[in-house]
Amino acid sequence: MICRVRTLLLAATLLLTQVQIADAHIVSARLGDFYAGALHPLLTLQDVVVWAALGLLAGTMGAASGRWLVVVFPLGLCAGLALAVSAGVAPMPPIMDAATILILGLLLAASLRIPLALLCAMAFALGVMRGAANAGELLPQTDRLLYAAGLACAGYVVITLVMALALTFRRPDTEPASNWRGIAVRAVGGWVAAVGLMMAGLSLAS
What we know:
Distance between the termini: 66 Å
Largest sheet: none
Number of domains: 1
Shape: globular
Radius of gyration: 23 Å
């Protein structure tokens, strides 16, 4: 029994000494830049709150109006990223991010019917702001096209999923905003506004 254990330990030691650094195909293909663009905004509080609130707002507007944001918002992300890279546009200060979240929360809490043109303009402007903010993670060796593609895909997926969930839950085409589902969505808007207010206070305090 002891000899068998010694043999296993010796074999394991020999195997460990032969281990080399892994060279995965995803690194050599530079697809890591795509995943960096897709994952970075999902790990940032400002992006998560703004994207989720915008998707929820699109869902409360109904499918006919909300589906435009699925296209407009990713285009805004790419435009903001391109502006930040080419023209050196600096990202918005933290107080502007907080004000954006506060406004989105208040719009959700008030359950206002926003015209489609204004809704698309808001989505594009928010996309430009958040795209410029995500440009801060670009490195000289980063493939900007892959990074932009990952960022746009993440924006598309988040807005689509949140809008679909909101449409399924809220049912804006068949139920009035005064029912319990509409009240729940407005309560979430109040929480979003509270997050924006807290972020504004922290940014002013610092």
